[in-house]
Structure formats: C-alpha cells, structure tokens
Amino acid sequence: MIILIPSFEPDDRLVQLVCDLRATAPLLRVVIVDDGSGPAYADLFAAVQRVGADVIGYNDNHGKGHALKFGFRSIRTNHAGEAVVCADSDGQHTVGDILRVVAQLQASDGAMVLGGRAFAGDVPTRSRFGNAVSRAAFKFATGVAVRDTQTGLRGYPASMLDWLLSIKGERFQYELNVLLGSRSAGIRIEEIEIETVYLQHNASSHFRPIVDSVKVFAPLLRYISSSLAAFLIDAIGLFILFAFTQSLLVSVVGARLVSASVNFLINRHLVFNANNRDHVARDALRYVILALALVASSYVWLSVLVDWGVPLVIAKVFSDVTLYIISFQVQRRFVFKSGAAPGVPVQSETDAALGADRPALRTAARSHGTSV
Predict the structure, then answer these.
(1) Whole-angstrom distance, CA of residue 306 vs CA of residue 33
(2) Which residues are registered as beta bridge partners of 189?
(3) pLDDT tens-place string over residues 65-109
(4) Computed over its alpha carbons, how large is the radius of gyration of the chain?
(5) What is the model's pTM?
(6) Which among 249, 185, 226, 236 has a CA at the least distance from the CA of 327?
(7) Strands 112-117 and 154-156: what pairing?
C-alpha cells in the first residue's frame, strides 16, 4: 500500500504527517510529489525524505491533477500491484482517517474509497458553500450521492491506476473528473466519514476560488451548455417548421434531427470525451436509439399538454426539462459508456507528456535522491 501526497510549497505539517504515518504504520510506503515548489523548499523536502518518505517531482508547478498522475505513473512503474491512498499535505487529513481509508480500501473489493468530510463545526464559508454546490451539481449530473466531492483523501486499488492516468485535468478539476468518469467506467464508490479539519480557515490552501471553481465545474458546465444550445436550436427549429407546415409531428421530428446531430457531436467530443474513432458507429447508433425515444416522448408530452390547453412554449419547456435529466443519465451510462475496464493499459496524454520531459524529470528526482 502506497500513501501518495501531492505537495506544493508545504510547511512543517508535511514533515509531521510523514513522521506520524511512519511511526504508526511503518509498513506503509509514503511517496511525496513535489509539484514544482522551487529551491526555497528543498530543505523541507529533504527533511521529509529523512523521516522516511520517497520524494519525487519536477521543476515547474503544474497543478494537483498533474502531480497525482505523476505519482500514479511512478507507482505503476516502481511499485507495480500496489494500491494507493491519496492524501493532502496541509494537515486536513489526520493519520487516523488515512489509516481508516487504507483499511476500507483493503476490504472494498475493487471500489474507489472516499474519505468524506461532514462539514460540521467551524468550517470556512467558501469551503462549505463550494462543497454544497459541488455535491448538488454532482448528484444532479450523475444521480450518485457523494457527501464530499472535493475530498483529497481517496483510495484506489492497483487495477485502477491505468484508468486514472487516462482522466483529463491537470489541476483541481482532475479529482471531480475522476468521480464523473467512474460511473461510465463501472467503478463503485464507497465513502466513509472523516474528521473535518480546517487550520487557520484553510489559509494554506492553494485553491483559487474563482479560477479553480470554474475548472472544477467545467465538465458539468459543458453538458449544461451543450444541452442549452441543443434546446435553443430545437426550439427555434420547432417554431419555424410549425409556422410553415402547421404539422406538429413534422416540426418535432425535423427540429430534433438538427438539434440531436449538434448535441451528439458536442457531447461525444467535449462532454464525455468519447474520442475513440473505433466506437463512432456504436456511439452514433446508441444515440440514434436515444434520440428516437426522446422524439417519441417529446411528441407525446407536447400532444397531451397542447390538447389540455397548455401554450406550446410552456409545454416545450416542461417536457424538455424532464427529458434533459433522463437524457444525461442515459448518455453517461449507455451511449458514451467506455468499453475499457480498470486494469486495461491506457496510454494517456499525461504519459506522453511525461515521457517527453523525462530527462528533466530525472534531474528533478535526483535532486531529491529518488528515481522515476
């Protein structure tokens, strides 16, 4: 079992955490990724190494997601077959909670294990609000209830490392992308409650509230934007066709064909990242089946509501909001579901980038007395 801790400009709490982990569970290997903290932090990372951690890293800061994938790649190469528990370096995760996630991961039979904070007590407003919004958006988008979507305390079985390296995102958005992708990859999520710890109101956090929040919610925003664009195209097409034909059936079918084509292309490439060219025909067939079902449902809803005297605009909005929720779930779980299961080797963009920079990364690692 490996404890992986990404770290950027840490303080003495990282040294204390490693000391406590080594004293409490000496059989666990601790790997620290220096995410480009710079020469000013060399002495601190040297101290971390002296108390028993392996320190790897690189010269320039790339973000938490990049650091995590760098660590996964190193563990896959140098400690094949080892499960990984990720923790933060800023004192938010206690040794007891880390070990509880370790125990749960060992008993989980292949599930991803999250250490979820209850957000009770004296919690910074930005953290409480951010998690509440993230939790609600994640539940809406996936149908899965997760207490703490932003937790950095997570356990992954060894079979999941290749899949983790295939997930996009270099900064804080990476961890939400992992959760969003887990459903389509068939990965179970188990969550245990951990202590909510905020020291000095989370002053040491490198999370940028506006910039990083936008990046964290980008996958959800992309889907909402895609659906909104399709809705507008569909609505405009419906009204134009109805004005010319006075046929509700022709108008619904014609407008939906145009909007569905646009929605398919956007969702496949930008939302669900299903860019494998070998599966275009499969995905298109699945989407056509979904689109036909949605057309039929939309026609039935509109016919019934219009017959009841509901204005066409209101009937359109009501029916499409309902079908929007259903459509997202079907696309995530069926239409664009990845055929690759955890454990199947994947060459990720991060692997390629790291391979290209390997001489520089070896130099950075040697400065810490380790190898990659």
Answers:
(1) 61
(2) 112
(3) 999 999 999 999 999 999 999 999 887 889 999 999 999 999 988
(4) 24
(5) 0.64
(6) 226
(7) antiparallel
